[in-house]
Write a structure and sequence with these properties.
The structure is a single chain. By secondary structure, the chain is α+β, with helices and mostly antiparallel strands. It is about 40% helix and about 25% strand. Helix 4 packs antiparallel against helix 5. The longest helix has about 35 residues. The mean pLDDT is about 90.
């Protein structure tokens, strides 16, 4: 039986893994040797373990966590595909976030911090028909698009006339899981399942205009929040975005977004 097995060194070379990796995978139960010599402690592997070992090496090369790899190896083929698709989606979200960061860094490297003009104004009360969703900061763009796709048909079904632009409402702090709201200003109307109404109170606000892709909105928010704190004001939720020129109307470089944050005099 031992003659048919491979030493840990030979098995490591065959499967493009190191001896250290194989020892670790054995310790955590990911890929255990089929035999360990009681006297010498030598570890032996069967040739039919090579497929799993090569799969581990491949997935580790893609930087998948060991816990995900263990889950994939233990799963039936259909469920294994689901595990890998879920990891693919998480990777796509990370790539999207990294691309946005890269764009911001390129703009900062070329032109420094942009000079957004921040003004204080009085904002009127607004009545919005809204839909809501929960998302991560990286998923905001796709979820807003999905909310718009729900909102406009509901307004049409209810026969509610709305006044452009569309609005996005966000918390002050972008948490890992947060509720966002997309709405349109309406004079009146009755709700439908999935359609709510929200009144945005009027009052003092700080605002600025951002022209360019949504991925660069953090630059405008940087200027907006800095101006609020420099003036001794306190920001209040929700943060409001008015999409004056959207993706259906212009290239990304010409998108126009009005950023509005309600403020009050700081008590500290």
């Amino acid at each position: 039986m031992q003659d048919e097995l491979l030493t840990i060194g030979r098995f490591a070379r065959l499967c493009r893994l190191s001896v250290k990796q194989l020892r670790h995978y054995g310790e955590i139960g990911l890929l255990a040797p089929v035999r360990v010599d009681v006297g010498s402690g030598y570890r032996y592997y069967a040739p039919d373990q090579a497929r799993d070992a090569l799969t581990i090496a491949l997935l580790r090369e893609m930087d998948l966590p060991l816990a995900v790899i263990a889950q994939a190896l233990a799963a039936e083929p259909e469920h294994r595909a689901q595990v890998l698709r879920a990891e693919r989606d998480r990777l796509a979200e990370r790539i999207s976030k990294d691309r946005a960061r890269l764009g911001l860094l390129e703009r900062l490297a070329e032109a420094g911090l942009p000079g957004h003009e921040v003004t204080l104004n009085r904002e009127p009360e607004r009545r919005l028909a809204v839909v809501r969703a929960v998302c991560t900061p990286a998923g905001i763009g796709g979820v807003v698009e999905e909310c718009v796709g729900r909102l406009l048909p509901l307004l049409g079904m209810a026969g509610i006339a709305w006044e452009p632009p569309l609005w996005g409402l966000y918390p002050l702090d972008l948490k890992e899981r947060m509720e966002i709201t997309v709405g349109a200003q309406v004079p009146q109307g009755e709700g439908l399942p999935g359609l709510e109404f929200e009144v945005l109170t009027g009052g003092l606000v700080a605002e600025t205009m951002h022209i360019g892709p949504y991925e660069q909105l953090p630059l405008a928010y940087h200027a907006l929040f800095a101006a609020i704190h420099e003036r001794g004001l306190r920001p209040r939720a929700p943060v409001r975005e008015a999409y004056l020129v959207g993706p259906a109307e212009a290239p990304h470089e010409e998108l126009m977004t009005r950023l509005i944050i309600p403020v009050q005099e700081s008590t500290t």
